[in-house]
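DATA SHEET
Item: assembly model
Revision: 1
Owner: S.N.
Input lines:
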Amino acid sequence: MNLKQLSQMLGLSQTTVSRALNGYPEVNRETRERVLKAVQETGYRPNKAAQRLATGKAGSIGLVMPTAPGNPTDLHFGEFLTGLGEEALRHDFHFVVTPADPNDEVGALKRLAVSGNVDALFVNYMRGHDPRLDMLKSLSMPFLVHGRSIGSEPDYPFLDIDNEAAFYDATKLLLQLGHRRFALLNGPMYLDFAIRRKNGVDAALAERGLALDEACVSHTAMTDEQGLLIMERILQLDKRPTAILCSSTVLALGAVRAINQAKLKLGEDISLIAHDDVLTLLKPENFTVPLTTTRSSLRAAGVRIAERLIAGIKHTETFPEQELWKTELIVRASTGVAPAE
Amino acid sequence: MNLKQLSQMLGLSQTTVSRALNGYPEVNRETRERVLKAVQETGYRPNKAAQRLATGKAGSIGLVMPTAPGNPTDLHFGEFLTGLGEEALRHDFHFVVTPADPNDEVGALKRLAVSGNVDALFVNYMRGHDPRLDMLKSLSMPFLVHGRSIGSEPDYPFLDIDNEAAFYDATKLLLQLGHRRFALLNGPMYLDFAIRRKNGVDAALAERGLALDEACVSHTAMTDEQGLLIMERILQLDKRPTAILCSSTVLALGAVRAINQAKLKLGEDISLIAHDDVLTLLKPENFTVPLTTTRSSLRAAGVRIAERLIAGIKHTETFPEQELWKTELIVRASTGVAPAE
DNA sequence: TCATTTTCTCAAAGCGCTTTGGCTACCCAC
DNA sequence: GTGGGTAGCCAAAGCGCTTTGAGAAAATGA
């Protein structure tokens, strides 16, 4: 069933039927009702590809899903997607998800953009001096960045959390509790958020004339396995740190396991603060010793980003183009006074 | 840059350029190379919507993502999506993901199908007597079901794991270890896999003249919170079960927490077997007491399903239309001899 | 009453691609 | 030298929709 058939059935022109469906004013009320009724009965749905071709709009948001054989599933991605979906649902939007090798994200994004089946693009996993930014700016298509790109002119629309402040505050808290030796379990070094978080830690330590020991800083994928491995290594250091900062509760999961295995008491022998993306599965309060965290909901970010992208497509974007969310520092039992030397 | 411009630039007709690009034989080798070079230089990409309209094919797989405000993110969905993506990447396919309220999956699926921007459909979270099946069969579009639908004629293409056998075997093992009182922490009752798993347990118990106590069977969302709650309740029963079966390691995560809190020893005071979807984050071997599991990789299923769907679209499907994967029963430390009465 | 506006409808063009069917050379064989 | 075959190219139709520009009918104003 297509427009032609439907209009023949009704004895109307395609024009009129199309207008009736799209809410144009120049259609008689009776006629419109007749059309709507016929649509109900026949179950007619306009062909999206044709609509897209004719209008240039398709009600869809494009995004690249980094994936490679063997790579672990990213919990954070799923949580974020849930947020996007929640909002897209309200507007009858859908996503076009292009899987891409993490090393070819710029290529994948370009293909997606020129393919002509998305109205807007979204990018995340931002890197320092991210090459995708120039490409996005050259396109005449709305886009939104989750995160930022240190080293690039901040003249693009983004939503980010204040990673530097989050880790500055967390470090400050630990300093106040008397800790002097710190470790940082961070995400991959090339990612923007990892850079900023480290900057936050560095800044807070510098104020006290302290610095991170290189042996106590790691930049890895954010899996619990990595957390375990690195923490095991760190715990074997001569002068082991008493304060641990983790870039994700997923890393913390492994780190805590290592701490337990070493028979150390979390919150007494060793303190830990993790960044909490509010992952459904991994609640910091559900750890045997509830974790102190810096918190910011990834899912909420997804909702907000979908909201802004859709507004951008409909040209109703009135929100500020750049948002920086503060994180909350929530103190639970994994932080305590530094043990005596 | 579109076909018309490109062909004018080359002094060729659109036909010839199109043919050159799509590998048709009736194009001179020289001409083809000239075209390919021009494509390189101009960065021309065919408009997908137009291609779709002209050919009816779009290189995309449609799927519905169940989501509702407040609903927890489903870890299993993400893991599966990773698998789909991994395979789609190899064939330059993408997904069109429509978020939908879990109560309107059939409607969402229909919209997706008639929208004309997917070549094939995929459905999961199958229910008993699933209403989507009739709809799918009436469509002339390839589709594939992950799971099955008990109560419906099995005349549709599917990939499923042998849930009944998995839980039959697991129960059998526990029986052999001397257990007599069982509990089952299952997924939602209306879902096919939950029904079959319960059937498996029932069958194994029946062989010994035993049966599940209704108070020891739960049907809930598969979150760790639910696992905790239910396990806490079960542990307070007068004659508490000594053997626990869990439909997911996520449920087991909560259940184990309850067991620990009750100061019971897993594998001694109480035994537990969980189904392991091989979630990246939740490895059964990483539990404090490694879990005995029935294992089948959700991600591998994703890869396989993408493979079959794409083959179906390209009309090269030669695989069996219906696949039933066996699960592995892997014994670790969470199962032990039943405690003396 | 006629001119003018308003209301409703339509035919046709166009979005960017693929594909059908036809056309022109050119070659070969008899 | 004619007929048939093949290689290589093209014009035009068509996919299903939206939108432009225009026209007929009805309503309005003087």
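QC remark: Chain B touches chain A through 58 residues (CB under 8 Å).
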